[in-house]
Design goal:
Blueprint lengths: L1 E3 L6 E3 L2 H4 L4 E4 L6 E4 L1 H10 L1 H13 L4 E2 L2 H27 L7 H52 L1 H26 L1 H7 L4 H6 L9 E13 L2 E12 L5 E2 L3 E6 L5 E7 L5 E2 L4 E9 L7 E6 L5
Parallel strand pairs: 2-5
Antiparallel strand pairs: 1-2, 3-4, 6-7, 7-12, 8-11, 9-10, 9-13
Length: about 300
């Protein structure tokens, strides 16, 4: 018998036994169209026109698209039909068990395309995030480099150099002034007596009298069978003026700095010329045994 593809009208010659009484699903080898071939429909077509069957047989050999199967090709076609029927039975069983999962091939393809699009979108987004992070790091690095260049430019500018030199010279001047104020404080107080309180506040001693004690010595001696303490020192006028010598206060102290005995001694000379040196000497009886040091100061003049 002859079957014809309903899509491309290609004719095929096949045994009726291969189709069967119920018909069979076949596939066109030319356009891959599937349809169900039936013997009854073919018999009716043969009864209606025997001439058409004869002409169709002639067209089989003349038409370029017509195909005639050999026995081997019919066996292969039977195998293909058997596979198709088995696949259809499995599909029917699956549809009965899980009708909700009956997705066609187009939907699956669309789903795969969507997944591919999502995956590609996620990859692109990840790349964009990586590029964004890289751009941020580059921007931070560029900003740091730019700031360094700006700072270097500012430091090398003429105005900045002048300011740096001014700061250096100002620091040097402050150091010089502090040194002069500390080491020449006696002369400064002599010229500006009001500065004495400032030096006293910061803990610097100021010689307001203009006289100093040098080479202070203490010697234990026996005088007329009595043990006495001999005290020697030199009084120096450290100014360029004539200074009147005030009374001298002698104080005996112990290890803790506590005063044990103190008394006043009048100097032998009332005035000292500039840079003049006066020898001073006195003796003390009944010195306490706990005495360890002697302190000499000038009494304040009372007007």
């Amino acid at each position: 018998m002859i079957i014809t593809c309903p899509n491309c009208n290609t004719n095929y010659q096949i045994a009726q036994s291969a189709i069967g009484a119920e018909g069979r699903k076949v596939v066109c080898a030319n356009c891959h169209q599937q349809w169900r071939a039936k013997i009854n429909a073919q018999k009716i077509a043969n009864k209606q026109s025997d001439k058409q069957e004869k002409s169709s047989k002639q067209n089989i050999s003349k038409t370029v698209n017509d195909k005639i199967f050999s026995s081997e090709e019919e066996l292969e076609l039977d195998k293909e039909f058997a596979k198709q029927e088995q696949i259809e039975k499995q599909l029917k069983i699956e549809r009965e068990i899980k009708p909700e999962k009956n997705y066609n091939k187009e939907q699956q393809d669309k789903g795969q395309e969507v997944n591919k699009d999502n995956d590609s979108g996620a990859i692109e987004e990840q790349k964009n995030e990586q590029n964004f992070g890289l751009d941020d790091r580059l921007n931070v690095k560029n900003k740091k480099t730019l700031n360094k260049q700006r700072q270097k430019t500012v430091r090398n500018s003429p105005t900045s150099r002048i300011k740096q030199h001014l700061r250096i010279w100002l620091s040097i001047l402050i150091i010089i002034l502090l040194s002069v104020g500390i080491f020449l404080r006696d002369i400064i107080v002599e010229i500006f007596p009001q500065f004495a309180k400032i030096y006293t506040t910061v803990g610097l001693e100021v010689n307001l009298v203009g006289l100093e004690f040098l080479d202070v010595q203490t010697i234990n001696v026996i005088d007329d069978g009595v043990e006495k303490l001999l005290l020697k020192a030199k009084i120096v006028n450290i100014t360029n003026n004539i200074i009147s010598v005030p009374p001298i206060i002698i104080e005996i102290i112990d290890d803790g700095g506590n005063s044990l005995i103190h008394w006043n001694v009048a100097p032998m000379v009332k005035n000292l010329k500039p840079r003049e040196i006066l020898d001073f000497e006195t003796r003390l009886e009944a010195v306490p045994k706990t005495a360890t040091n002697v302190k000499l100061t000038f009494a304040k003049e009372t007007k």
